[in-house]
Design brief:
Chain B: Destroys superoxide anion radicals which are normally produced within the cells and which are toxic to biological systems. Destroys radicals which are normally produced within the cells and which are toxic to biological systems. The complex is a heterodimer of chains A (219) and B (248). By secondary structure, chain A is mostly helical. Chain A contains 8 helices and 3 strands; from the N terminus they run H-H-H-H-E-E-H-E-H-H-H. Chain A has a 3-stranded antiparallel β-sheet with strand order 2-1-3, with helices on both faces. The N and C termini of chain A lie far apart (43 Å). Helices cover 54% and strands 8% of the residues of chain B. The chains are: A mainly alpha (219), B mainly alpha (248).
Chain lengths: 219, 248
């Protein structure tokens, strides 16, 4: 257990930054489009508050990092790395998340390359879903459950990450489908019953997008 | 006939004496009504936090403890450990078999942390400034942090900056006897690292601890937390801690 070290402050700096290159992406659908699986209330908070904060804080941290780099201040650069990881990871993860969800459709199952790959690597879609669900529900504290593509082994794998650690940077796996299991992602609607949220989220999985991501990963 | 009955009863009683089992945790009731912490923490939030989260940690801990005790592979040392109170077991996690360790750290830690946390809260004062410690505890805080305000600022800052799920703690350090401010992730707590740390104050930074009232605005939760700290209780922990430490 480390003693408290002062983390990179989140005080807002007046908007004079030259390279605020990260921006909050729009959702590809309305805030209430994912109902009844995820409420409009949650989507609004999740996007406008949580994701927006990651973007803002990432820009601030990067600005400071670049400043420190310019001065060859390695101590400050290293000091800022956790903030870049938290906020950069948060930005990456949520940007992917909005894309791999879509309004509820009946009989939602993967098709094409994704369906074949799932069958090959898991035996069946149901088996993959069970493994991903168990892993996601089982995350202790905050984190994500992922279906990722292992480019070296050319196979799909289930993985979990802590906090906002981004899948690819942390494990090398390419994200194909993921589930945010931070409490903010479901609490207002599902309360402590994460399992119900994880079960329901498969109804709004944008398998078409995941298929695209897989095809790209396999190139 | 009477002799036989006496013999049977005696045998039964002797048998009961030797039939022991793992410690079994019970969900403590809150020391106040569910709505007592309004408006800082709503009744709705307190019901969820206590009746769902705390209950779940209790249930799961009991399942693990029972499994450990009845597991045929468990040796006597392990069986003795799981008969101890939870606050002792949590200081001996390294002796637990791998398949139980992580789970008991999480659920047992969750039980212990919430039991303590709920005990150190009370009806809110109208303002933050009204609520402060007095006596030896205040002196110790001033000695270790410069002033009570400085301590509040450090504690609040650490709580705001902390990322993910976890806790911020104020405790008497086992080795140095100084007051230390520190964090733990998930349901870890200071006694898992040194059984002689004396915990004084903590704040639950899991989102479930504040989301129904404050949503993402953790800073508001932290600001208002100062209104609900039961400094009498914390003072008591400090006094007991001083006594305990002077024996070491």
């Amino acid at each position: 257990m480390q003693t408290i070290i002062k983390l990179a402050p989140r005080t807002l700096i007046p908007a004079l930054s030259r390279c605020s290159k990260h921006t909050l992406p729009d959702l590809p659908y309305d805030y209430n489009a994912l109902e009844p699986v995820v409420s409009g209330e949650i989507m609004k908070l999740h996007h406008q508050k949580h994701h927006a904060t990651y973007v803002n804080n990432l820009n601030i941290a990067e600005e400071k990092y670049n400043e420190a780099k310019g001065k060859n201040d390695l101590t400050t650069m290293i000091h800022l790395q956790p903030a870049i990881r938290f906020n950069g990871g948060g930005h990456l993860n949520h940007s992917i998340f909005w894309e791999i969800l879509c309004p509820k459709q009946g009989g939602n199952q993967p098709t094409g390359t994704l369906a074949e790959q799932i069958k090959k690597d898991f035996g069946s879609f149901d088996k993959m879903m069970t493994q991903l669900s168990n892993a996601s529900v089982g995350v202790q504290g905050s984190g994500w459950g992922w279906l990722g593509y292992n480019k070296q082994d050319q196979r799909l794998q289930i993985a979990t990450c802590t906090n906002q650690d981004p899948l690819q940077a942390t494990t090398g796996l390419v994200p194909i489908f993921g589930i945010d299991v931070w409490e903010h992602a479901y609490y207002l609607q599902y309360k402590n019953v994460r399992a119900d949220y994880v079960k329901a989220i498969f109804d709004i999985a944008n398998w078409k997008k995941s298929d695209e991501l897989l095809q790209k990963a396999k190139q | 006939m009477l002799n036989i009955i006496i013999i049977i009863i005696t045998f039964f009683l002797i048998t009961i004496d030797y039939v022991d089992s793992q410690t079994e945790l019970t969900l403590p009731t809150l020391p106040y009504a569910y709505n007592a912490l309004e408006p800082v923490l709503s009744e709705y939030l307190m019901r969820l936090h206590h009746d769902k989260h705390f209950q779940m940690y209790t249930n799961k801990s009991n399942i693990i403890l029972k499994k450990m005790f009845t597991d045929t592979q468990s040796d006597n040392k392990l069986k003795e450990i799981v008969k101890q109170p939870i606050e002792i077991i949590l200081t001996q996690l390294e002796y637990l078999p791998h398949q139980y360790q992580l789970s008991l750290r999480y659920n047992g830690g969750g039980y212990f942390n919430h039991k303590l946390f709920f005990s150190m809260l009370k009806t809110p004062t109208s303002t933050v400034d009204e609520n402060k410690p007095i006596g030896p505890l205040l002196e110790a805080i001033e000695k270790n942090f410069g002033s009570f305000d400085k301590f509040k600022q450090l504690f609040s800052s650490a709580s705001y900056e902390f990322f993910g799920s976890g806790w911020i703690w104020l405790y008497i350090d086992a080795q140095t006897k100084r007051l230390i401010l520190n964090f733990t992730v998930n349901q870890d707590n200071p006694i898992m690292y040194d059984k002689n740390h004396i915990i004084l104050l903590c704040i639950d930074l899991w989102e479930h601890a504040y989301y129904p009232v404050y949503e993402n605005r953790r800073n508001e939760y932290i600001e208002n937390f100062w209104r609900i700290i039961n400094w009498s209780f914390v003072n008591q922990l400090y006094i007991e801690g001083q006594i305990k430490r002077s024996d070491l």
